[in-house]
Amino acid sequence: MGTIRRILFTVLLCLAAAEGFAQYDYLHANRKVIPGGYDFWVYTPEDYFYTQEETPCIIFLHGASLCSSNLNRSRRYGPLDAIVRGRQIPALVVVPQNPGGAWNPKKVNDVLEWTKEHYKMDSTRVYVIGMSLGGYGTMDFAGTYPEKVAAAMALCGGCSLKDQTGLGQLPLWIIHGTADRAVSVRQSQTVVEGLKVKGLDTRLRYDWWKGASHGALARVLYMTKTYEWLFSHSTRDPERNVNTVIDIQQGDLKNAYGDMIRDYADPEVIDD
Asked: What are the backbone angles phi and psi of residue 70, rounded to the nearest 5°?
């Protein structure tokens, strides 16, 4: 850590002590910062404020029900809502707002590159997770930019890419409920079958949860193990192996909120 950063760190600690160890995690709205691109939120955890060290990054892509020009809709469920409810996620959490239609991988990448330019990000630990339409967006983005994504998790989605070979180049976990009436489980199964035929399934995990509905999988976004699994991967790993030790089972859904810190203060929202 350089001299200037040490001085900054000391000043911040003194300020925190003066305020009784105040919480310094922020949720920053970014509107119209990318011409023709998505508006998006960036959450910075408390440790980021104190250390300014390179931090992992999670990109969350929401489902069709949250598509809107209103940036606040993307906070209704997912990692940002989990943080408000008490889940501590030690990462930059980037949540684009899709105004409508399929997720555009290039526009998601523009958000990633903007965040990389403006924040201290560990570019070897970038993760993407999404549900429903965001599950499609997750696979489309990861399959287009596999070299940028350390790991991806796609919930009850599918893939729109004609060439899906990129999905075999990174750790990918696909989860879908067999009772999903909004997006058929066949959408995910088709992706898995295609990767298997091409011998591109060595970094792939997949689960078909019997009797699980579309909405049930939203609870995965609130689980500690979801983020532990993502964080266990890095593009520094030359083999890009998928973690099969950390497991999430259908029975875990009922305890998704059990270990949250209920009295943890909400992040400060900066919405200029």
From this structure: -90, 110
- Tell me the angle at which helices 105-118 and 133-144 cross, rounded to the nearest 10 degrees: 70
* CATH number for the domain whose boundaries are 22-258: 3.40.50.1820
Exposed/middle/buried for residue 131 (C-beta within 10 Å: 0-12, 13-18, 19+): buried
Name the strand (E) or helix (H) holding 152. strand 151-155
Instruction: Please say whether the beta carbons of 200 and 165 come within 8 A.
Output: yes
Which is nearest to 83 in space by CA: 56, 47, 44? 44
pTM of the predicted model as reported, rounded to 2 decimal places: 0.90
d(CA 212, CA 190) in angstroms, rounded, equals 18
* pLDDT tens digit sequence for 147-177: 999 999 999 999 999 999 999 999 999 999 9
User: Which residue type does 208 have?
Assistant: W
Of 148, 78, 77, 81, give the one whose Cα is nearest residue 109. 148
Q: What angle do CA 266, 271, 272 make, to 5 degrees?
A: 150
